[in-house]
Amino acid sequence: MAHSAASPAIAPSATPVTLPIRAILPWAVFFGVLMLVLLYFVGAEQGATSLMSGENVHEWLHDGRHLLGFPCH
Amino acid sequence: MNPVNSVTVRQLLVRGMLAGLAAGALALVVAYLLGESRVDAAIAFEESHAHEHGGAEPVSRALQSTAGLATGLLVYGVALGGIAALAYCFALGRIGRFGARPTAMLLSAAALVAVYVVPFLKYPANPPAVGDPDTIGERTTLYFLMMLLSVLLAIATVILGRRLAPRLGNWYATVAAGVFLVVTVGLAYALLPGINEVPEHFPAGLLWQFRLAALAIQLTLWTSFGLVFGHLAGRLLEPAQAAASAGRGSVGAGTAASV
User: Fold this and answer.
1) pLDDT for residue B188 is more than 50
2) Which ranges does the record mark as transmembrane (chain B) (predicted)?
3) Which residue would you say has higher pLDDT here, B255 or B84?
4) A4 touches chain B (CB under 8 A)
5) 31-60 of A, contacting B, C-beta below 8 A
6) What value does the mean pLDDT of chain B take?
7) Do B63 and A60 touch (CB under 8 A)?
8) Ramachandran quadrant class, B192 (left: phi over 0; alpha: psi -120 to 50; beta: rest)
9) Minimal Cα–Cα distance from B157 to chain A, Å?
10) Taking the alpha carbons of B39, B40, B44, B45 in that order, is the dihedral positive or negative?
11) How many Å apart are CA B166 and CA B175, to the nearest integer?
């Protein structure tokens, strides 16, 4: 094949890219925290701890919490 | 720093959240079909055994079992999809010679085990009526602690396996890392306090079926996440191979030649 001579730079590894840690870190820190906040609201808000008063969040997410394995009440 | 890499991370993150949304939607179907009848049965048991139930419910059962359940599963899917995509950025090319799609599938399997199955075996999912409201704080702390430990131990296992590989070879390095994981998780199980708050006369069959349904939800979520995210990441990172494997032989060959 004509392109086989040009390929070896990519071909030896099955992996297309390795992303440098420095490029990942800003995204990982900012979006990682954001995603964890979302998980906290689904899994624990108005259960063990409350940032908002009342129990509407808890009641709204009641079935999801039980079925996703979070301690609910 | 190469800005292309940062763009790739962003593109993978967006794809992870979309794949998580799709996986959450499929898990929602499983939760609705397999889980809701068990939640209803457990609530019926709870009400028949409660001495006094305080007044009107702020959210009706009809809303809890549909819109409420959907909110929970979709947000859970998007959030874990985003986190999994970020973990994927770290794992890509660092866990061995795996392509874009196998890496996605391996990561999903690891996430299923580390985020759900390992904590579940110590602190399994409970239906309504199981669990003392007075211990919710303690149970939540222990559950999240177990989840955090499990994820950290899984990451340590992968790093250990990679470190041992040059000395022991891939097979024995993997076995040794696996033994490390089993022993450390076993120690965590042994040292953390157990919780059993199943009320007397709660139907054992119902508890078993509820927990199986909870496992089925997670299995659906992570399997579909691995497949969808792997497909999207493969198209992004290996466009030539993706085109060729999609059966468009001539187009694929042309693209490969141009690469």
Assistant:
1) yes
2) 12-34, 73-92, 104-121, 141-160, 172-192, 212-233
3) B84
4) no
5) 31-32, 34-36, 38-39, 41-44, 47-49, 54-56, 59-60
6) 91
7) yes
8) beta
9) 19
10) negative
11) 14
Spans of all domains in chain B: 1-50+59-128+199-259, 131-197
**B100-110 mean pLDDT:** 97
Give pLDDT tens digits for A20-70. 999 999 999 999 999 999 999 999 888 888 888 888 999 999 999 999 999
Chain A partners within 8 Å of B94 (Cβ): 18
- Which residue's entry shows tokens 């041992």? B164
Complex ipTM > 0.90: no
